[in-house]
Predict the structure.
Amino acid sequence: MVETSDPSRQCDEAPQAVPPRDEASGAGAAELPYPAPQPDEVTRPFWDACARRELCFQECAGCGHRWLPPSVLCPRCWGADTRWTPACGEGTVFSFAVYHRAYHPAFRSRLPYVVAVIELGEGPRLLSNVVGMAPAEVRVDMPVRLEFQDEGGVTLPVFRPVGMSVSRPDGPPVSQPGEGGG
């Protein structure tokens, strides 16, 4: 039993150290199967669109509200007349966290990584990852653009910063297209 500063919270064992990731080779902890989403009848249209490299959100025909994650009813008016609408792929970081601990073994080699709430240009928000820059450089309100990443047999929407100089995790700052410089 490991003592903690809060006596009501005791751990059976100390947290395990995670080997650092070698950014150049991608080596680190052994690659394990990715914990892929399990689509159901409500979420399947979202994942099918991602497989086509298209990000879609739901829109209510009654009140016009747009949202993610998928649901059978509009969360604003409870209407059932909904449709899937493609997103433009532009958005901003609404909020984010940098993970320094892997809560699933498949993520150990990715540490640290960014989980962010992305606000799409059309309004809906979704949880995703910000890629292509050092986690310490991610900022709220940072403009991002949609990309897709194949992972464990599933195509996932991820977001990359646009219109700013960023440092790659493995190198010096680089300029984004349309910015001049580098």
